[in-house]
Write a sequence for this structure.
């Protein structure tokens, strides 16, 4: 049973693999605001647009002191290819196949497409405060204009 995480809740602890073979943890983000965006799959149209939009605005997020982290269940190798193919500068991480952060948050969920039911990542973004609490959540994200909206929220938080 997944706990429901909302605004004001502490974001759960995590440790995920990065494309370079390292790890990123919640502690790595402590002391600064952070945006963690969950997306379904590398190199798909919506996910590519979202990652490119966050990459384009990364200098603005940096100026605002906000870390960016994109998360999917794709392997580190797939992330490396995704980064290289699209010149991405946002940090990416690989969530565990089973029982990972996306499972705990409830963003790895049952989806339906073309009459088929399957498990998949529900595109969701979290804005965390410097203390690791959730300041804002965007569930079921529509990609167009999303990175700009998150930047504005991060600046005013």
């Amino acid at each position: 049973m997944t706990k429901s995480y909302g605004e004001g809740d502490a974001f759960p602890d995590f440790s995920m693999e990065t494309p370079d073979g390292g790890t990123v943890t919640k502690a790595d983000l402590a002391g600064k605001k952070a945006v963690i965006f969950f997306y379904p799959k590398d190199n798909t149209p919506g996910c590519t647009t979202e990652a490119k939009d966050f990459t384009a605005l990364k200098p603005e997020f940096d100026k605002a002191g906000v870390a960016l982290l994109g998360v999917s269940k794709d392997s580190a190798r797939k992330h490396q290819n995704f980064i290289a193919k699209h010149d991405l500068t946002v940090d990416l991480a690989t969530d565990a196949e089973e029982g990972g952060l996306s499972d705990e948050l409830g963003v790895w969920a049952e989806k339906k497409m073309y009459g088929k039911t399957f498990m998949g990542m529900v595109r969701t973004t979290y804005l965390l405060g410097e203390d690791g609490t959730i300041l804002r959540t965007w569930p079921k994200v529509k990609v167009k204009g999303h990175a700009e909206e998150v930047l504005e929220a991060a600046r005013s938080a």
About this structure: The mean pLDDT is 95. The chain has one domain: 31-156. The longest strand covers residues 66-72.
